[in-house]
Amino acid sequence: MDTLHLTNTSDSQERLIKKALIASAIFISLVAIAFAPKFHHALAVIALVCCVAFVIHTLLKQSKVSYTLTSTHFQQHLHKGGWAVKWNNISSIGICSYQQQGWHQPLPYIGIKLKHYSPFLDATCPRVASDILMSQRALLYLGMKQSNPNTAFEDIVLDSSLFKSSNGKVYSGLLAMMANRMKHQRGFFDFDVFISAADLDREPAEFVGLARRYLAAAEPEDTAN
Fold first, then answer.
1. Cα(181)–Cα(188) distance, rounded to whole angstroms?
2. Which H/E stretch holds residue 42?
3. Is residue 86 classed as helix, strand or coil in its secondary structure?
4. Mean pLDDT throughout 67-72?
5. Cα 61–chain centre separation
6. CB 209 within 8 A of CB 77
7. CA-CA distances (angstroms) from residue 180 to 19, 77, 136, 192?
């Protein structure tokens, strides 16, 4: 399979947003210069406009999420870093769902079920792990409510107990929290790693179909390098 790069925002959209920010900043600055009673008032407005434009640009940059799909691995790139997993370490990929009164309702998340936790944990930097733990608390709460409503949420949301992987490696601290979160989520949704539908460039079902084609074409675990 050919290497494929995807992003939730296109280059043309980024250029359009940058042009709009610059044009807006220039327009407001000219209006401030023309109508401000004193020049230092105009300078204050211009400084405020520049600060707002910088904050908006930074937030847009941080919200950019991209993906790399190759014949051997799948990788998500975030502002704080990213994570990667080999196809031969993936058991299944699908759309996460919530069961209510016997009916399965799709959730805006794509789930990935791993065969082994250690390769994923070892390739995930602490900043990304921390971001995942915080940003996916709502998903954990929903899973807990449908599967085990008597569980105290505070006992599992940041479960820092030592985690021993299938290969015998023991994790502590932030990576132990990440591993325990994956364990809890597997019990709730049968997936370990989640991708928000808001971070995709296409419909979740289409993305899942694409990922499954790469997964089917990957080398088996016992023959891959």
1. 11
2. helix 39-62
3. strand
4. 93
5. 14
6. no
7. 44, 23, 13, 10
pLDDT band at 34 (very low <50, low <70, confident <90, very high): confident
- With tokens 């107990």, the residue in question is 161
The pTM of the full predicted model, rounded to 2 decimals, is: 0.77
Distance in angstroms (rounded) separating the CA atoms of residues 161 and 217 = 37
Higher pLDDT, 104 or 5: 5
Tokens of 102: 């016997």
Residue pair 82/76 in contact (Cβ under 8 Å)? The answer is yes
- Tell me the C-alpha distance between 83 and 225, whole Å: 19
Query: According to the model, what pLDDT value does residue 223 have?
Result: 43
Q: Which of 146, 149, 157 is nearest to 188 (CA)?
A: 146
CA distances from 95 to 90, 167, 194 (A): 15, 28, 9
Quote the CA–CA distance of 112 and 140 in Å, as a whole number: 15
How many other CB atoms are there within 10 angstroms of residue 4's CB atom?
Answer: 11
DSSP 191: -
In this structure, are residues 144 and 156 in contact, taking their beta carbons and an 8 Å threshold? yes
